[in-house]
């Protein structure tokens, strides 16, 4: 500004300069994800609606970011509203996970800044790993378990093997076996620590005989086997193992009396009843059936014995002048031994 005196009149001349600043609205930087990891790990029991991951991005121009997911990502997660920093969003679980059905996913996430319709988009691939939890019980492969064992089976012999599988993994799928308190033998409680009849290997499920069997005492055992995993919390399931004892002829028949005395008139007709001998077999079933026979003293075949009932009858001529007395030897056998 300067002052000029023109004929004693003062004028002031002012020169004004204008500085025009041009602000570029061009979108110069492509958005990019600043999320360091591309791996998302989620336990399979996480509840739907839980926040599981944070997506963050930037375009170096402080513009708000806009996030989206591909179809796989949309099926798994909901994208939340922008966080206060305008650079990130929370992902919440949209659907219940099941590692036993699908343990891994892959999806793409996209980010843009939507500035002046010159949107430029960044993308990143993410990998989802579903972490196992112990949510499955062991399952026995075959049920029911049943085996027949002769009562003279040798000790330490393998009787039967039980097997179970667990759909989980690692420690959650490791199965161990034991007998349960529910194991019974004819109403009598049988557990691993109260009987020496059976043992079960805790890792392979092999059941072996560790005590002598006796069909006449206990003809059948019903054992309850527990299969349990080593996860937390521990899961378990039960199966019944029936062990039927097969009777063998290990108890010879015994006569009720050792001496039988009878009298008979001479010339008694054939078929006349003389005396009935009786024996009993300690076995059961077919092994309990017995058979009688005369093995000595039956001169001239004078007598016969019913092999099933033990009834001795006249079979030939009885003559006191020829033979005044007979001493018969009777043998009895189990039919299974004949």
From TrEMBL:
One GO molecular-function entry? calcium ion binding
**Organism per entry:** Exaiptasia diaphana (Tropical sea anemone)
Query: From which domain of life does this come?
Result: Eukaryota
Gene3D superfamilies documented for this protein: Cadherins
What cellular-component terms does GO give this entry? plasma membrane
According to its record, how does it sit in the membrane?
Single-pass membrane protein
Q: What SUPFAM superfamilies would the database entry show?
A: Cadherin-like
The signal peptide annotation in the UniProt record is: 1-26
Q: What is the lineage of its organism?
A: Eukaryota, Metazoa, Cnidaria, Anthozoa, Hexacorallia
Q: Does the keyword Calcium apply?
A: yes
| One GO-annotated biological process of the protein | homophilic cell adhesion via plasma membrane adhesion molecules
- The protein in question is named Cadherin domain-containing protein
Pfam families in alphabetical order: Cadherin (PF00028)
Arranged from A to Z, the UniProt key words for this protein are: Calcium, Disulfide bond, EGF-like domain, Glycoprotein, Membrane, Repeat, Signal, Transmembrane, Transmembrane helix
Q: Where are the transmembrane segments?
A: none
